[in-house]
Design a protein that fits this description.
This protein is of the alpha+beta class. It has two domains: 2-115, Aminotransferase class 4, branched-chain amino acid transferase, N-terminal domain (D-amino Acid Aminotransferase, Chain A, domain 1); 124-280, Alpha-Beta Barrel (D-amino Acid Aminotransferase, Chain A, domain 2). The protein has helices spanning 22-26, 44-57, 66-80, 123-127, 154-165, 209-221, 232-236, 268-281; strands at 2-5, 8-11, 29-37, 40-41, 85-92, 109-115, 129-133, 170-174, 180-183, 187-192, 195-199, 224-228, 240-245, 249-256, 259-260, 286-287. Strands 7, 8, 9, 10, 11, 12, 13, 14 and 15 form a nine-stranded mixed β-sheet that branches. Strand 7 (129-133), helix 5 and strand 8 (170-174) form a beta-alpha-beta unit. Helix 6 crosses helix 8 (268-281). It is globular, with a radius of gyration of 19 Å. It binds 4'-deoxy-4'-aminopyridoxal-5'-phosphate (PMP).
Length: 291
């Protein structure tokens, strides 16, 4: 297994970063998670664009152009010969001293890992999953914009721990106003009266690449997609509910906080979207030329 580290492909055992890297010391950095399906990297440019936008907002200058980052990602996938897998792209502030000031970090650390992915178990897609609402709220836009996909996931991790303790795989995170933002690592959708609804990104949601794809597919299928404001009431009374994410793809939700959603089984609309998504991912993407 070869890891891209600061411009070089090195064996996994040699891919090491300093304990003075501010990515480790302070979670100072940004990242992306991307899928490769049948040798096509899904929505690669969109992911890299989101990475550069996150970096720009936190004033982290990535030491290579966006086009070079795309090339490096494709090369790392090709070098590992992985036709189906998961790419983790990390850019940290780099090596500094023990103070938080990023001014003392000279060069950002760039890492590209291509590996397998631990998916939700296949039965989740047939049976659906249950969610709880976490007591941990999403960090408000005014404090740290949730559109930044930063290396600092403590807020989400706290909510994930709540989900685990409640015996469910994911938790809903509300924003400061008590409206639904997203889940700990997935976006959330509901279907009601022909409408496909998801919280607007200004409600505290990451602009998910899968979310954007589902908004497009929903429109093609005949739904009216809307990025909006949603309360728990809207979820409890939805006809269907599902989660989206690079790792999760599209997962039906059948129960929220003890309330069955719709008839308590995965919805037909969710099934149609999942089928359309699975057709798209194997054809739409940046094709990797494997050596
Ligand atoms: N929300 C959060 C907090 C995430 O970390 C992710 C990515 N895992 C998502 C939503 C889904 O985004 P995407 O579809 O781009 O993977």
């Amino acid at each position: 297994m070869l890891i891209y580290l600061n411009g070089k492909l090195v064996p996994k055992e040699e891919a090491k970063v300093s304990v003075y890297d501010h990515g480790l010391l302070y979670g100072d950095g940004v990242f992306e998670g991307i899928r490769v399906y049948e040798g096509n990297i899904f929505r690669l440019r969109e992911h890299i664009e989101r990475l550069y936008e996150s970096a720009r907002t936190i004033m982290l200058e990535i030491p290579m152009s966006l086009e070079k980052m795309i090339e490096a990602t494709v090369e790392t996938v090709a070098a590992n010969g992985r036709k189906d897998g998961y790419i983790r792209l990390v850019v940290s502030r780099g090596v500094g001293d023990l103070g938080i000031d990023p001014a003392n970090c000279d060069v950002p650390t760039v890492i590209i890992i291509v590996d397998g992915i631990a998916l939700y178990p296949p039965e989740f897609y047939d049976t659906g999953i249950s969610l709880i609402t976490a007591s941990t709220r999403r960090i408000p836009l005014e404090c740290l914009d949730p559109r930044i996909k930063s290396l600092n996931y403590l807020n989400n991790i706290q909510a994930k721990i709540e989900a685990r303790r409640a015996g469910v795989p994911e938790a809903i995170m509300l924003n400061q106003n008590g409206r639904v933002a997203e889940c700990t690592a997935d976006n959330l959708f509901v279907i009601k009266d022909g409408k496909l609804l998801t919280p607007d990104v200004t409600e505290g949601a990451l602009p998910g690449i899968t979310r954007a794809t589902v908004l497009e597919l929903g429109k093609q299928i005949g739904y009216e997609p809307q990025e909006t404001r949603l309360g728990l009431h809207d979820l409890y009374n939805a006809e269907e509910c599902f989660l989206t994410g690079t790792g999760a793809e599209i997962v039906p939700v059948i129960n929220v906080d003890g309330r069955g959603i719709g008839d308590g089984t995965p919805g037909a609309g969710t099934g149609r979207l999942l089928r359309a998504f699975r057709e798209l991912i194997v054809t739409d993407g940046v094709a990797v030329a494997f050596r």
